[in-house]
Amino acid sequence: MVNVSITKEFTWDMAHMLAGHEGLCKNIHGHTYKMQVEVTRKTGDLITTPGNSQEGMVIDFNHLKNIVKDKIIDPLDHAFMYWCQSPDSLEHEIAELLKKHGRKIAVVTYKPTAEEMARNFLKILSREFDKHDIIIQSVKVWETPTSFATARQEGKYDSEQI
What we know:
By secondary structure, the protein is of the alpha/beta class. 28% of the residues lie in helices and 31% in strands. It has helices at residues 61-76, 89-100, 114-130; strands at 5-16, 29-41, 79-83, 105-108, 134-144, 147-152. Helix 1 packs across helix 3 (114-130).
């Protein structure tokens, strides 16, 4: 059996800091992030309904793009990713100052590493695409052109598993 998947790439700019990190990343800094989202269908490899405008597709690339932009890209683009449980008081002060001045903040409950982002984005997107008979196979998040993290859907798909 052939299993067809499609992948779409996204980019956004965002700042963060890594509290407790021994290197330079403990400072506030930014990246142009790149993300690839790979999807496949839960049932069958392609839409086969005659007359359906998406016949012969896993999902329309535009539909994939719109969902990922709505759930991930738009909330993060040009934001400061704020780890609300950070042990670093400076991170809390920065977030408060940005809020006070009406700047964009994306609040997360995890240390904002590429690995944690990939895992969280997979979880968010899996819940959303489950409604469309789509499985997120993998999410890759690049922090730099040469460094990325991958979160993969393992085993049989189960939205409660993540």
